[in-house]
Amino acid sequence: MNKVPRQDVADAAPRSLSDRLLRWESILVVMLVAVIVGNTAISPYFLDIYNLSDATYNFSEKAIVALAMALLILVRDIDLSVAAIIALASLAIGLAAQAGAGLPVLLLIGPLVGAACGAFNGFLVTRIALPAIVVTIGTMSLYRGLAQVVLGDKAITQYPKDLAAIGQSYLIKWPPLPYSFVIFLGLAAIFAVVLHKTAFGRKLYAIGNNPVAARFSGIPVERIRFMLFVLTGTLAGLAAVLLTARIGSTRPNIALGWELEIITAVILGGVSIAGGSGTIPGVVLAVFILGLATFGLSLVNVPGIVISVLLGLLLIFSIAMPIVVRRLMKSRAT
Amino acid sequence: MNFLLKHRELALSLIIALMVTGVGIYAPAFATLENAASVLNDTSILCMLAIGQMMVIITRGIDLSVASNLALSGMLAASLAQNYPDLPVIAFIAVAIATGLVLGLINGSFVAGLGIPPIVVTLGTLAIFRGMIVVYGGGNQVNASEMGDVFQSFPKVTFLGLSTIFWIMAAVAVTAWVFLSMTRVGRGLYAVGGNPVAARYCGIDLAPQQLLVYSLAGAISGLCGYLWVSRYGVAYSEIASGYELTVIASCVIGGVSIAGGVGTVAGALLGALFLGVIVNALPVMQITPFWQMAISGSVILAAVVVNARAEKRGVKLILPEARLAAGAAK
Predict the structure, then answer these.
(1) B contacts of A303 (beta carbons < 8 Å)
(2) Could you tell me the domains of chain A?
(3) What ipTM is given for this predicted complex?
(4) SS3 call for B1
(5) Per DSSP, which regions of A250-300 are E strands?
(6) pLDDT band at residue B85 using 50, 70 and 90 as cut-offs
(7) Rounded CA gap, A296 and B153, in Å?
(8) How far is CA B143 from CA A119, B53, B74, B197, in A?
(9) Which end of chain B, N or C, is less surrounded by CB atoms within 10 Å?
(10) Backbone angles phi, psi at B50, to 5 degrees
(11) By three-state DSSP, how is residue A222 classified?
(12) Global pTM?
């Protein structure tokens, strides 16, 4: 009689509890809890609110850049030049400070230089159609090289006090929250809303999953990719302001190797390097896991390079484990 | 011009020749045979690493861990020399190559066995391998005085004015060329990189190929680890730090396509040589070494742009309908 029209493609099954528990973010939450519990167990100083707030200094700047990098990797691009952009932006801040510029100029010039560097990356990638990884390996040498040409073996260490205040003091006295951490939290909230609750965010997933189909659906793929490069550069410039203000000096090797730490955080956060999947909460959790693990281990005097071994193992095994588990489950099912 | 773009090895050789001539006119000491020999000796390690990296990139992979592998392999060989300075040199070389091979196998098994993206795996092992030097040696360094003569004298032996390092590089290059252009497995690498699906239908499996290239790249890094440490006379955790990007840059300049399937031994060698000539020409030109990074960055970008143009010309549309469609799309 009245037949219900059947669709060719069945509706997606409702999410089961096990699906929710097996989500990458849930695994990250467990890892974060493990890091906090483990660190509390090995050091009595870990769960001190002032210590924890100081710990945020060490990862907030990288975390800010990681947010933009996550979007870039989501659309199948990557930017290896972020640390070099930080160096160049820090140089610009240093030169402006030497010229006697006031605080507003110092705060603005970093993001501006960053945006310019990002625009150059974006131009080469989208207009000349070059692979992002190759372009940014080149600009990485170029940007840091320019900083090196200007600085030589010298350093700029004269910065006004009001800039140092932004890098070294708390924005909120209680709970003690540094400027950089508050900025990171604010940006993370904005990024999460834009990526997960707006049409623009959905477009990024569309581009990452299939750029050609996205273009045919009317999404300005190249323009969006260009924008994301500019955004990443801008946030690297912002990170340069915070870092320069915090350490009060600009050297050619400032932030050396940060690009790999930032990308590690993004990948651990569950953003697929092949593009098209990943979430901001995942990246935020990964940033906390890496930052707090580093802080806790350095509290008990584990050398930095040994920590990097542990974080490297964490990266590989956290990516490998789900694959191994899935294979085991599959082989049991058949 | 079109001809040169299509034959990028020739174009690159011409550019290098022009550079050498230009610098030679400015500073005659640069264009001498002795200096050419010293540039070649200086660049040989980079050349070998570029060849290993190229084989990985051909299969659409990337190995960011080569410099860390080099440092760890070199450290193990040096610490063997520290404890047993009288062993024959082949023992040190064997230990370095074996270490590098094992490290490469680790990369390869994660990439090939579990299907984790190469950039993720080698980003992790980049940190792990280098950190293992400190875990193993407690942060101590091995100095030239502790390594013994056997260990250090080998790379300094010269034949026809060129050091052993150069001759080893030449042997590696010839072997790699024969392997890539004349063997079934070598040709398979291009097939896998050019089109993995089509290669699969032809019966060429991706996984064994990946395992092979990461192992080879690892073994080459191990060999370079011994050569590096014995040449510069020091082994510690920071040697060749960041060198992986110079290696990849050499490949890119040499026309190896990061998208896979394209690349030649000659290209990788010339790319490395190009960077080597620049590094050696700067002091002669009395340009401070601080310029080196900015210049190599610009060179990489220029090379990528040129290569991209050459690749675009390379596309041929065979079917008339496709040609029409492409015309309409324009």
Answers:
(1) 134, 139
(2) 50-323 (1.10.3470)
(3) 0.80
(4) coil
(5) none
(6) confident
(7) 45
(8) 46, 29, 12, 50
(9) C
(10) -65, -35
(11) helix
(12) 0.86
